[in-house]
Design brief:
Low-confidence stretches: 247-255
Largest sheet: 2 strands, antiparallel
Number of helices: 7
Oligomer: single chain
Radius of gyration: 52 Å
Strand order of the largest sheet: 1-2
Strand content: under 5%
Structural class: mainly alpha
Shape: elongated
Order of helices and strands: HEEHHHHHH
Distance between the termini: 80 Å
Amino acid sequence: MNTFLHGLRVMAYLLHRLAFLLICLGALCAVGYTSLSLAGLMPWLDLELSFGGVPLEKAGVWVQSILTGFMVALAFFLPSTKRILTLENSHRSFQLGMHDVARAYHYAHAADRAGSFKLSSEFDSVRERLVYLRNHPDLNALEPDVLEAAAQMSHISKELANIYSDEALARARDFLRQRQTEVETFNARLGSAKIVATELKHWLHEVELEESVAASQLERLRDELHEVLPELGKVAILEAEVERDTVTHLPRAAE
């Protein structure tokens, strides 16, 4: 798709140049021929025209003169079009240059983050970066002005490169990776604790249920003893013996 668009732009550029050349040649030819016609060296354009049934005399002369004037006016209009094309070409060149500067700055900034530049003074720092960019295999086709601009930009952002250096980013990633491992371990322990809490809650419910059943059975046994032994003395003796031999109060799990 990019190749197709580039081909269209090239074709439009060539057609525009061809039209510019043809208009200039047409204007020169029209002026030259009309001048020769005025001098009587060349015949005027001969046309038979009429308007409202009335024939127009010397219609060819008027048509030739008007066409010549139109071609001359069009030729005077072409310099403004040329200025527009010049501005468009300079804009494309500026965009291309900024793209190259950004690409060179990317390499310089990456090297700065890796700690490749050690000089601190501005002149030495820019020169060190410029030498690095000139020796870079991917930037050997760029102009010196582009590399110099990228080196100066890299020197201005060296503090940012120190803050976000590769070593600092590696430490930050290790720290975050360790924190993530700790969180995963905590979540695993929390899940195990939830399982144990659920088991203990279920166990407590079962113990309480068993205590309730045992208490109801003891109450039923007392009622049966009251029916079988109506004498108060014997009932008291039997109740004391039952209380000694039977667990009357089971300890609760919560205690």
